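hiii, so i know i said id send this last week but things got crazy w the move. better late than never?? heres the sequnce for the chain we talked about at the cafe, plus the structure i predicted for it. fair warning i was half asleep when i ran it
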Amino acid sequence: MIRAAFFDIDGTLVSMDTHRMREDTKEALFALKKKGIRIFISTGRHMQDIRTAKGDLLEGVPFDGYVLINGQYCIAGEKQQVIHKHPIPASDIKSLVELLRTTPFPCVFLERQDIYINVVNERVIKEQERVDLDIPPIEDISRALCADIYQVVPYVSMEEEKLIMSSMPHCSISRWSDTVADIIPADGCKRVGVEKMLKHFQISPSECMAVGDGENDVDMLKYAGIGVAMGNAQSSVKAAANYITDDIEKGGLCEALRHFGLL
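okay and structure toks below
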C-alpha cells in the first residue's frame, strides 16, 4: 500500500512551458491527501525558488514535507521542522572560490536562507528565464567561506565542468541543461533526503512512490517502492523507473496515479 508520494517540481508538477501546475495535477494532489497519502516535494530548488516574489509555485497545495536542494536540506510538517541538513565540505568550497578568482565563471551559491551569484552573463539570463526564476543578487564570493553552502550551481559546459570537479573531490554533479549543473556533496542526493523523510514519518521505502523527469531523480526513483518517470524525462530516468507515464503537458502525472490505483 502506498502511504507517501514524492514529486519533483520542474517537468513533473510544473510545466516548463507555462511554469504553472495543471488544474488536474492540483486536484490529484488534494485527492491523495484526502485518501491519507502523505505528499512531499523533492526538488533541486531552494525554498526561495518555490515561494518567490511572483507567488507560490505550488499554489497553496499543503505538502507534508520538502526535500530541498537535491536532498541537502529537508523540512517536515506544518512547523517546517528541519530534519536533515548536509552542506558541501568547506575544503571543496575553498577550492571552488580559489578557482573562481583565477578562472571566473558564473556560479550560484545556496545557503540555508540565501541564494547569491558572483557574476551574471547571457548564459545565466537565458537559463533563469527558462525556469522562470529571478537572477540572484550578486555577492562577494568570499562570503561562501564563512557559511554552510548546500549546493553550488555553475553555468558551464560539460567540458568546463571537468576543471571544477577536479577542484571539488568530495562532490558530485548532475546537469539540468547543457550549460548549467548542480553540485552537491558526493554522499548526498534526493534519495538521501527521501530516506530521511520516510524515517521521520515512519514509512518504509516499499510504501512510497517517487515521480521525476531529471538526472537528479534517478536515485530517488530506484529507492522508492514505485518509481515513475514522466514521458518527457531523460532516457536515464526512464531506464531507472518501474513505470513510464505520459508527458507533463498531456496529464502524465494523473495517468500514473490512476494506473497504480491512487486516484
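btw The CA atoms of residues 1 and 207 lie 6 Å apart. thought thatd interest u
miss u guys!!
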